[in-house]
Amino acid sequence: MSGTVFINGNIYTLDPARPHASAVAVKGDSIVYVGDAPGDAARAAGPDARTIDLGGETLIPGLIESHMHFLHEGQMLSEMDIYWKSKEEIIELVAQEAARREPGEWIIGRGWNHETWDVRVWPSKDELDRVAPLNPVALSRADHHSMWVNSAALRLAGIGPDTPDPHGGEILRTDSGEPSGILVDTGMFAVWNALPVPDDAETRRLYLLAQDELFAFGITSLVNASQTVRNHDILDAACADGDLKIRVYDMLATHADQDQAWLEAGRGPEFGKYGGRLSARAVKIVLDGSLGSRSAWMMQEYADRPGHRGNERFSDEELFAIVMRARENGFQPCLHAIGDAAVRQAVRVLDDVLRARPLTDHRFRIEHFQTVDPADLRRAIALGIVPAMQAIHLASDWKMAQVRLHPATLATAYIWRDVLDAGGIIAGGSDAPMDLVNPYYGIYASVTRKDLNGEPSGGWVPEQRMTREEALKSYTLWAAYAEFAETRRGSIEVGKLADLTLLDRDIMRCPEDDIKDTKALMTVVGGEVVFDRR
Length: 534
Fold this sequence. Notes:
- The protein is α/β, with parallel strands linked by helices.
- Helix content is 33%, strand content 23%.
- The mean pLDDT is 96.
């Protein structure tokens, strides 16, 4: 139970009773002092405590990533890097991989975005066939809602001219009816099922690789937005061995019937195991796709694809049964909804569930909440639904959104201020690796409504900005609330877990365009320094 004293800091606590301090004392895994008296801090920490002089640098509560894909981030770090590269660069990388791999060996990558290419059209299987005829190729789009594959991958997945579109997805086709090489949403599932599955040791390595990256950004905990029972148990073993130190809040993935497998095994929700390191008490339910893949379920047709409104997954009756099953078994339903039609269905069904089985403190979540009719927004907030929104998506998508959406729908997109003014909160995150996990990009986008190039000047629809304090709360206090952890995390207060992030600048006062350049100097989880670049 040796302690640590942090002195001479510029400390933002997010505790309204003491919003600012210069000293913090930690004993064991908890905060035992917050204030401005180093002597009192030292006494609280105990006689063997070490002292860390922060030198005036800014200390904030440990950052919480409220929506990401933990294993996929590790895979992205270890796979071929095609993130937002040009089509020509990607094809050359595939050719290089094919030259060094054995025939039949998969080539896998993720992160392409045709909206960033000079010619903004879908790529084709023929372009991959020319450079990798003997290797199956599967390249996930940045949003992970469509996939670019070659003929070898289609054969292994059993997809041909006569394969029908699955419900909730598409197999895009050429004029002759052949699969073009682009699979959307559930159209990808057959390829997913054909991909090689990493063994337990490799899966653990990928998780730990992602953990190191997150610590370097000052992230102390995350919500893992889609998890299998097997991989949760791998995390459990890594926690038990002391290798996994970051805090993980798992959402079980319904698309693979993982919640049913969990229940059939006689398991209930798990919360805060290993000193608050690991939880599994939520269920992820995907209602539609993404804007980039034109698969978000919209009430109005896409401006750049007449007659198409995206892909819905469930009838109201089907969704009600899934949500009710989660609610009856003590799990928190978290509904992926990007299009306004999907958000409307989510709000409607969640309301029906709450009427059927009232629950005062439910914290039902809607993940993304990206386009939403004002009436549905007000209804969601009145019901106590928590929007988990990713500000970095605006930075990536604002130009594309103006092409995809008609003006009336565009006016309802990324409306953070409307959520907050209606009395709601926002749980912030990145959706990594679908977008960049760097939390300072997200905070910057929240405050400026600009992309990473500083465009548009003055911000896109600037009246929807968050304040700096709101943006920070979206990654701390509000994020903790969204996973039932606000009494233990999210602010620097006596009695809370000692999760802390030291920054190289004062993000509450520096020029707003400099927020995106912030670096974490030190990351502390449960009183342990897990990253230090000072």
